[in-house]
Specification:
Length: about 280
Amino acid sequence: MACPSAPRSRLSWRTEGRYPYGTLEPFLGHGARTTLASMRAQAVARQSVRTADLMAPLSAALDAAIGIPSGHALRTSLLAMRLAEALGIGDRDRSALFYAALLHEAGSQPTAEGRERIATRRLVVLSRGSEDERRAEEHARARRGARIALQAGFGPEVAVTIMALHEHWDGKGLPIGLAGPAIPLFARLVAVCHDLERLIQQRGAQHAEEAIHARAGSWYDPELVGVLLALCSTGLLPELSDEDLADRVADLEPSWLERRSDAGDEMRIRGALGSGNPL
């Protein structure tokens, strides 16, 4: 199937050469400043495992900790990586997207109003609380998630994706109201895959696809919606029910950019992810 290719300027988690939320330096600890190349070289020199194999079960634990169905992050990641392939996004960018998709719910926390609210917050209009309160809550989620990603040793592209996850194409999203191409591509891509997966689990594939289509151009990048729904019509959705989903998703990381983790890396990742939600 021939899929449209987005202009190069849109194949970036940056916006016009800068971070849309300003500098991420305040979030960076000593460990987060270590370059990815250095981390990979150190891990290979010691006994190590694929970080993808480590993150797959941890993402399921994160799902459970924040009260959403187990496997949500894995299914969202599969959809996001398939969509990225169809868009022609290169290996290096897809490698970053892989971890951004697995960690997109980092920063979410259960509230006194119940865990189900977390799973559906993008799909309903909350009746309680002022707009200022909701915006403040989303600011807190975004900053907490970005900090967790950086503390775990993942790059700024992952942090920015988490921060911009709930922005809308029409500029009416949260936390700061970015609109259109000003929203980093990874965030636009993960957001539509996140919502499609949640709606499939709640209402079934047909309703999910209709709802996503209806919000193209308001919540979602219409180009991404068109490509994603075309993939759905050609057999993508059965992959979400694969019994070996964790292995299938882990194998989606471009092999030549494969990230590896040793015992110390694993402790840092577990510590960061468990800082707000014990795993």
